[in-house]
Amino acid sequence: MSSNRRPFFVILSVLLLVAFLAAVPALAQEPLPPRPGSTDLPERPSTGESGQSSSRGNTGDTAPGGSHITLSVSSTKSSLWAGVEWLDSVSAWNRVEGWQGALPDGGGTQDWWVGQADFGKGPFRWVVYAGSDKSTVLSASEPFTLPTSAAAPLQISLTLDADPTPVPTNTPAPAPSWLTQTVSPEVVQPTQTVTITWKLVFTNPTPQTIQGVTVRDTLPSGLYYAGSRASKGNVGLVGDTVVANLGDVPPGGQVEITVEAMTDGKASPGTIYTNKVTYSSSGGNEGMSKEAKVTVAGASVLPVTGALLASPVTQIGILVIVLVGGAVLFARRRARKA
After folding, report:
1. Are residues 100 and 190 in the same domain?
2. Is 201 in the same domain as 284?
3. Which helix (H) or strand (E) holds 110?
């Protein structure tokens, strides 16, 4: 090789090397992982699947194979209301929907049947309220577990002072874990029309049937309703909200709801679609699931550590420009020598 050609080939080699290094990240870069969302709320444990739990009044009857718990209250007060609460994994007390009722003026008893499936479960407590609105707790029992056999019923006794000092209560709405949602995909491209699918699951973790359950999903702005279905009840679009009427959900029962929406392919990079879903029941239960988010990829989504900021299209374009430039230089070089 003549000495006058060496500088040309050195330059061409350097250009090819630069082009190769620019193209490798574009070809190897994987799709960006979704941003981590908020920490999931702790889930509340199930209190069992005992079937129906009903008041026995003062008849003394016990369902075959089951047991019962009895509260005796001594008080001079009237308009008393008593009910059972259960403690969840985040140390919050929650009302057991079916184990609530009025007490006779001046005190009395309240009796609830316990199915075998709930034997030994807890902790629970019995609470006496000043009125059916259950806004003020007058007294609460020590935590207890449910009977372990039909031969071992549980009896709780509470005595109320003539003018008791109200004690604090913690009876929040049912936990968000009663209703969960997942979404796929979690990242979409700004120029693509994509179907986004939310999977909603309503679960009844209590020992009683929850009546008249309704789930509402208001779609994020910028998305278009594409369809919905449910494993129980009926579901459809009402205005801009997907409404699912699930009917009654038995103890331990689950109902799955699928909601689909479309992107319009015109969203700005970095846009976040946040989906919020709520539920309610005819018995007064209400709450919401944790949020599920879909991110539109783009400048607002940080690249993988070490990756170039230029897009794959830009990097491949650099490669083409360098190669074409090298070819032009080579052709001009040969033309001069001809």
Report:
1. no
2. yes
3. strand 107-114
The stretches of the chain forming alpha helices (DSSP H) are 6-28, 312-337
Q: DSSP readout, 53-99?
A: --B-TTS----TT-EEEEEEEE-S-SS-EEEEEEE-TTS-EEEEEEE
pLDDT at 42: 30
Residue 152 and residue 226 in one domain: no
pLDDT, tens digit, 9 for 90 and up, residues 136-180: 778 888 888 888 888 888 888 887 765 544 444 444 444 446 899
SS3 content of the chain, % helix, strand, coil (to 5): 15, 35, 45
Both 199 and 100 in one domain: the answer is no
Residue 35 in domain: no
Residues 6+ apart with CB under 8 A from 208: 52, 53, 96, 97, 98, 99, 251
Can you spell out the DSSP letters for 133-178?
Answer: T--SEEEEPPPB---SSTT--EEEEEE--SSPPPB----PSSPGGG
The residue to which tokens 């990097």 are assigned? 315
**Nearest-angstrom CA–CA distance, 220 and 259:** 12
Cβ atoms of residues 256 and 235 within 8 Å: no
What gap in Å lies between CA 318 and CA 312, rounded to an integer?
A: 10
